[in-house]
């Protein structure tokens, strides 16, 4: 794809990237601008976190398995009430939150205590983490080693550059630590709010207009 893009760029086409990590793509064809994805902080806000549940958003979560981190989510959230929202998740059983409306999704981000993030390999970040952080729900994310996939040999996960663990969210490459972070946020709402508020400030800085 990069080689094909280069041929068009040589003829005058402009390329806009959405993450600095795209520079690591094999055969990187260059860029004319880097503009991050956008969400409206007046739409995603007002986290309350009264439901002691960990949630995530993923389409065909179990079917797409290692590209969405299903096994990791299943393992680290096993001892908590949990839901995965998105289409084609009927095979998740009670964990399935289903496909929900835009307003319903915003409500779930507001009402639940913790958001778990893996993203979609090989995207450096996805819209779901912007929506979560901007709402103010505290995020627990996997680290870069857990995110690695043998089909993609370049750095493709920007979250450790966006989240400073313990400050505006949490991330780790250790399963027990990930579970511990979720447990901490479930038990300490004051800490959860502080983490979520810092995450929201980061999201507004990076992803507002």
Verbal overview:
The protein has 209 residues and is an alpha/beta fold. Helices cover 35% and strands 15% of the residues. The chain contains eight helices and eight strands. It has helices spanning 2-9, 70-76, 102-111, 127-135, 144-147, 159-162, 175-187, 189-207; strands spanning 16-17, 33-34, 51-57, 82-85, 96-98, 112-117, 139-142, 170-172. The strands form two sheets. The protein has a six-stranded parallel sheet with strand order 5-4-3-6-7-8, with helices on both faces. α4 crosses α8. It is globular, with a radius of gyration of 17 Å. The model has no long low-confidence stretch (mean pLDDT 97).
Silhouette? globular
Number of helices: 8
pLDDT averaged residue by residue: 97
Uncertain residue ranges:
none
Strand content: 5-15%
Helix content: 25-40%
Lateral arrangement of strands in the main beta sheet = 5-4-3-6-7-8
H/E element sequence? HEEEHEEHEHEHHEHH
Number of strands: 8
Alpha carbon gyration radius: 17 Å
How far apart are the first and last residues' alpha carbons, in Å? Answer: 29 Å
Taking the sheet with the most strands, its summary is:
6 strands, parallel
| Class by SSE composition | alpha/beta
